[in-house]
Design brief:
Layout lengths: L11 H14 L4 H11 L8 H8 L6 H11 L11 H20 L3 H19 L9 H6 L12
Length: 153
C-alpha cells in the first residue's frame, strides 16, 4: 500500500512563483521535474507529469510534493520543518526578529523583495545557455570566434 501524504495548499505568492518557474524553465520536462522533486524528499516513486500539471493548477497538492518541487526548482520552500526542538526555537526566534524589523521599518519588505528579485535575475542571466559565449581570449582581442568570415562556409 502507498504512503499517505495529507493535503497542503501553499500560499498564493509561492504558488504563483512556482507556476511561473515551472512554465518557463521546465516547459516540456514535467516528468523530469516530478522525478527530481520525488528524489529531493526521499520518495520512492516519482510524480508523473500529470501530477505536476495538477499541482500547478492548485489541485492535489501535498506538503511533501510542495517541498520536493521547491527543492527541484530552486525556490525557497513556503514552510520550513524544524527537525529538533532547538531548531524550532531558533527558527521561532529568527521569525520574531524579522517580524520586529519589518514593523520598525515598513519599507524593509519591499527592499528585501527587490534585492532577492535582482539577485535572481542576475543568476538567471548568468545561467542562460541560449546566449553566445566568448572565451577570455575572444573578450581580450575583440574577436567573435564563433562566426565565419563572409564567403566561407
Amino acid at each position: 500500500m502507498g504512503e499517505y501524504d495529507p493535503g497542503y495548499q501553499p500560499p498564493g505568492w509561492w504558488q504563483d512563483e512556482a507556476k511561473r518557474i515551472i512554465e518557463t524553465d521546465w516547459k516540456g520536462r514535467r516528468a523530469e521535474l516530478g522525478a527530481q522533486a520525488a528524489k529531493a524528499v526521499g520518495r520512492n516513486a516519482p510524480w508523473d507529469a500529470t501530477r505536476i500539471t495538477k499541482f500547478i493548477a492548485g489541485d492535489n497538492q501535498t506538503l511533501k510534493m510542495t517541498l520536493g518541487i521547491a527543492a527541484a526548482i530552486g525556490l525557497p520552500p513556503p514552510i520550513i520543518e524544524a527537525r529538533t526542538m532547538a531548531e524550532a526555537q531558533g527558527l521561532q526566534q529568527k521569525a520574531k526578529t524579522f517580524d520586529s524589523l519589518r514593523k520598525s521599518n515598513p519599507d524593509l519588505q519591499g527592499k528585501v523583495e527587490a534585492a532577492v528579485q535582482g539577485a535572481e535575475a542576475v543568476a538567471k542571466e548568468k545561467n542562460d545557455q541560449r546566449r553566445p559565449v566568448q572565451s577570455a581570449h575572444e573578450r581580450r582581442t575583440g574577436s567573435g570566434g564563433t562566426r565565419r568570415p563572409p564567403g566561407r562556409g
